């Protein structure tokens, strides 16, 4: 596997995972990944990372939780501005 196609694959990892690459580039990178375990490893790592981030975003505190936290801070932190 040539170094160039590794660089090409890695350079496009985020666009690839976001589905922003065109069909031709996506196919080329997918083909490269099948033949290149190190790149495949890097891509699946990024994929897992994105999944974790997505889960974290889903766990974002709801507004009422933030309000409760804010009033708790207002009562317990003398310098806290509402
Ligand atoms: Zn590679």
Supply database-style keywords:
82 residues, 77% helix, 0% strand, binds zinc ion
Summarize the structure.
The chain is built from 5 helices and no strands. By secondary structure, the chain is an all-alpha fold.
Please render the helix and strand layout as text:
Elements: H1 3-11, H2 13-17, H3 23-35, H4 37-58, H5 63-76
Please, could you describe this protein's structure?
- This protein is mostly helical and 82 residues long.
- The chain contains five helices and no strands.
- The chain has one domain (3-76).
- The longest helix is centred in the middle third of the chain and has 22 residues, at 37-58.
- It is rod-shaped, with a radius of gyration of 21 Å.
- The protein starts with a helix and ends in a 6-residue tail after the last helix.
- Zinc ion binds next to helix 1 and helix 4.
- Residues 1, 6, 9, 32, 36, 38-39 line the site of zinc ion.
Rg estimate, integer Å:
21 Å
Distance from first to last alpha carbon: 59 Å
**What is the helix/strand order?**
HHHHH
Q: What is the structural class?
A: mainly alpha
Counted up, domains total 1
Biggest β-sheet description = none
* Share of residues in helices: over 70%
The global form is rod-shaped
Mean pLDDT: 80
Report the bound ligands by name, code or SMILES.
zinc ion
Poorly predicted runs: none
How much of the polypeptide forms β-strand, as a percent range?
A: under 5%
Count helical runs.
5
